[in-house]
Amino acid sequence: GDILSQQNVDIAEEDDAASLYEKLMEIGKQQVRQFTKALIDGTYTRRPQDSSHTNIWRKRGHKDGIIDWRMPARGIYNLVRALTHPYVGASFLYNGEEKKVWKAAVVAEETAMKNIEPGRILKLSSDGLDVQCGMGIVRLLVWDGFPAKEGEYLL
């Protein structure tokens, strides 16, 4: 259908699903107030959508939230922040059990150590759990608890 109200939203590098939702709610409130006034006054305008800029995407499924450690660290970071609370969380298998990741950070975009398989735990510290990715290293900051050890693999 036609566009009646539209506004750009800046997504910051540190934004996640929850913070973006809050931004959208604030903008939505402003739009409702402006649009309601325009409806009452009869001053609203309709703008046809440009179908060359639209797409159709299937509904997200469980497999879409599984972390593939072969991905670049930045891709895993973005997956985690997109699926964090209030959503279902990104996940991986640990000893056959699904574990959720709620917050992550990119430690390195490039991999300094060669010949280390993606998914290997490189470091476990009070800062988090550093995991080798296909390219780079991601640090899990908030995840479902499990007794991980350096050198183990996450699937």
Could you please describe the fold and organization of this structure?
- There is one protein chain.
- This protein has 155 residues and is α+β, with helices and mostly antiparallel strands.
- It is built from two helices and five strands.
- The chain has helices at residues 17-41, 73-83, and strands at residues 90-94, 97-108, 121-125, 128-132, 137-143.
- β1 and β2 form a beta hairpin.
- It is elongated.
- The mean pLDDT is 90.
What is the element layout, followed by pairings?
Elements: H1 17-41, H2 73-83, E1 90-94, E2 97-108, E3 121-125, E4 128-132, E5 137-143
Antiparallel strand pairs: 1-2, 2-5, 3-4, 4-5
**Alpha-carbon Rg, integer:** 20 Å
Sequence stretches where pLDDT stays below 50 over 5 or more residues:
none
Globally, the shape reads elongated
Specify the structural class. Answer: alpha+beta
Strand order of the largest sheet: 1-2-5-4-3
Mean pLDDT level? 90
Give a quick precis of the structure.
The protein has helices spanning 17-41, 73-83; strands at residues 90-94, 97-108, 121-125, 128-132, 137-143.
Q: What are the salient characteristics of this protein?
A:
single chain; 2 helices
